[in-house]
Amino acid sequence: MESESGKRFDVLNPATEEVVDSVPECTREDAKRALEAADAAQRLWEDVPASQRARLVLKLGDLIEGERERLARIVTAEEGKPLKEARDDVQGAAEYCRYYASLARQIEGTVLPGEAKDRTIMILKVPLGVVVGITPWNFPAAMVTRKMAPALVAGDGIVLKPSSYTPLVAVEIVKLVESLGAPKGLVNLLTGPGSTVGDELVRSPITQMVTMTGSVEVGARIMESASPNLTHVVLELGGKAPFIVWKDADVEWAVRSALWARYWNAGQTCICNERTYVQDDLYDSFKKKYVAAVEGLRVGDPTKSGVDMGPLVAREQLESVESSVKRAVDEGAKLLVGGTRLSGPGFERGYWYTPTVLEDVDQDMDIVQKEIFGPVTPLRSFDSLDEVIEYANDSEYGLASYMFTRDVRTAMKAAHKLRFGETYINQVGPETVHGYHAGFRKSGVGGDGSKYGFDHYFSIKTVYLDYSESPEAPYIFPYA
Ligand code: NAD
After folding, report:
1. Which pLDDT score is estimated for 470?
2. Which pTM was predicted?
């Protein structure tokens, strides 16, 4: 959406620091207008049958997939992930559309007997109204349809606010939905600062739900700003996933999996392996293979094939990762590999950090407790299963966790005892469209994906119906 301010801001390529494009710098006034437009359009949209609403969303999925290469190049240019990962991000965006469209004929309620003859009670799911979707920069395509597709199928209107680092692919996705003839005002996108545009969207009485993916800090602020109107919030926040390798694990597979779960998207994924715990008997052999694998990662121009890792998204992110590593080393952690910015040919500009591994980390160090969100693995050994489960659960975060073992009893014990919204056993993510993606503790409130995530997009309403020919006077508890 254009801004009444007439101002624009630049979007930079994190690999080169060149300007990719610019977008409008929207204001609080723009946010109010977008919400009013969404409110008016939603009142008509809710009367369109769900199966028809789903058709639009299904077609959007096809359009996104058809334009995958073009959209993936935009993702790589604005976010810095290798093209092959950007294609997955875009494919994910298409799959969210398909999945939520498939739920249109499964919007179930409950029918119950009433408290008198010829009375019945219906519990129905009805659209919420206007939803605000606030998205982060790390999956700039998939996060958009993860919020938009369920909203549209449920009969809601939506106002989207993408991260200012990565608004470009979101703009393109909204153009695609408009090209399909979505009613004017039903889907709106505002680019601009979270502190003004985002804040206005959250505070408005028109907004019935804010679904936000981002940091704990901003999530807490949103919850506070939403509270005067008692607006629903769904928050998908940070993580500090423990990656546990038990002594009987297939070590080659565990190494490859730990590597992917850490260095995927340069470590900037909420379910990333943020701390690797390896059982004593396997520790040395795992460490040797893991360090060799990390040294073998190919870091470079994310548009080139064969590259495993691109730059970090922004200078602030680079500085934050750098200072986390420095603090850990100052506190006694040992660098096994990495620990510096990348320099030399190809790295003169951009936000590059070497894949890093640290050992001798203690449980109370920040590197083990705080989200790093970068290509850094803190590695430590453990003895017993009870001990490592205690380490794992000792975190204010509770999003993802990983367990590698060949013993089903160990796996199931971990699955029950790990207090996280997700446990991946002998496999890595990402989460699927039909799994519920939700964090425990400070990792979030509510979640996305699956029918449970879809439920957040509805209000639940009870209808009491008397269909008798000669209604009787009301009575309460006749047999009391
Ligand atoms: P962020 O919290 O800085 O920003 C997220 C969004 O909130 C952005 O669009 C931003 O503009 C907006 N925002 C900022 N201040 C706001 C305010 N006062 N009111 C309303 N909106 C505001 O997060 P980020 O740096 O973009 O993303 C990285 C974080 O996201 C990490 O912590 C990561 O773990 C988390 N994340 C979580 C999940 C998940 O599913 N749980 C997925 C991806 C990323």
Report:
1. 77
2. 0.96
Query: Which pLDDT value is given to residue 117?
Result: 87
Can you give the pLDDT at residue 219?
98
357 vs 233: CA distance, rounded Å = 37
Q: Ligand 1: which of 218, 262, 399, 440 to mutate, most ligand atoms within 8 Å of CB?
A: 218
Residues with CB under 6 A from ligand 1: 134-138, 161-164, 194-195, 198-199, 202, 212-215, 218, 221-222, 236-239, 270, 371, 373, 399, 437, 439, 444
The rounded Å distance from CA 253 to ligand 1 centre is 32
pLDDT digits (tens, 9 = 90+) for 124-146: 999 999 999 999 999 999 999 99
